[in-house]
Design a protein that fits this description.
binds phosphoenolpyruvate; TIM Barrel; 8-stranded parallel barrel; 15% strand; 12 helices
């Protein structure tokens, strides 16, 4: 069984000093919670400060994106090699980037490969829109994004990755997937990851659910068989809530 895993995506929130203060609160709030991999993903400009604040703690730092190329003329972009040493994780293929910035599976796949080659663990996000769910296409869309995102990876590389299922209609809307919907899709994701690697490897890949995870629904979500953890947006900016969510996943057996 994969380790319990909770990651906070701060998105484009917090100034540099707010990020450091938030990291400090989380460091004391999360102290003593064992058995859960804890990751926070601040904006790029705060990564170094947050990493310094968290040095010596169990909390890992992740980036919210990176480029697929290792260097060069890509104005405004950040390479994996620049994150190495600060970040252990990177969120890739977030639906906000797919939707607002037009990121496609092949580009996301190139980033996933570069992250793994750089020694940074990718958190590959997949998820359908409301329209796709209403049209009965959710499973096919998620399967396609998984196949696209993990294309060409060896079984060992898949084992070093994390997958987050984030239905687009549940992100930032306060409308989380029902536990039944989440379990159904997470089961399919586990199966597909297994088909792309092996059943044994798939059972070790942390599968996260994301989309309006909060202090009210986290315990129920944490009880689901194929859900190893959560990718938390809004609630990750509230230290008490993020700590409560992390504790909930710590109860998972
Ligand atoms: C996210 O953007 O990754 C996310 C899950 O956001 P929220 O928890 O706010 O829905």
């Amino acid at each position: 069984m994969a380790n319990a895993f909770v990651a906070g995506n701060w998105k484009m929130n917090t100034s540099i000093s707010e990020a450091t203060m938030l990291a400090r609160s989380l460091r004391s709030g999360l102290l003593g919670i064992d058995g859960v991999t804890q990751v926070i993903c601040p904006p790029f400009v705060s990564l170094a400060g947050v990493a310094a604040e968290l040095a010596g703690s169990n909390i890992k730092v992740g980036a919210q994106n990176m480029h697929s190329e290792i260097k060069g003329a890509f104005t405004g972009e950040i390479a994996g090699s620049m994150l190495k040493g600060i970040c252990d994780y990177v969120i890739l293929g977030h639906s906000e980037r797919r939707q607002l910035l037009g990121e496609m599976d092949d580009f996301i796949n190139a980033k996933v490969r570069t992250a793994l080659e750089t020694g940074i663990t990718p958190i590959l996000c997949v998820g359908e829109t409301l329209e796709q769910r209403d049209n009965g296409e959710a499973a096919a869309i998620v399967q396609g994004q998984l196949q696209g995102g993990l294309l060409g990876l060896s079984a060992e590389q898949i084992e070093q990755s994390v997958v987050a299922y984030e239905p687009v209609w549940a992100i930032g809307t306060g409308r989380a997937a029902t536990p039944e919907m989440a379990q159904e899709m997470m089961g399919l994701i586990r199966q597909e990851v297994g088909r792309l690697s092996s059943v044994g490897i798939a059972s070790n890949v942390p599968l996260l659910y994301g989309g309006s995870v909060n202090t009210e629904n986290c315990l129920h979500l944490a009880s689901l068989k194929d859900l190893d953890g959560a990718l938390v947006g809004g609630a990750s900016l509230k230290p008490d809530d993020f700590v409560a969510i992390t504790k909930a996943f710590g109860t998972r057996i």
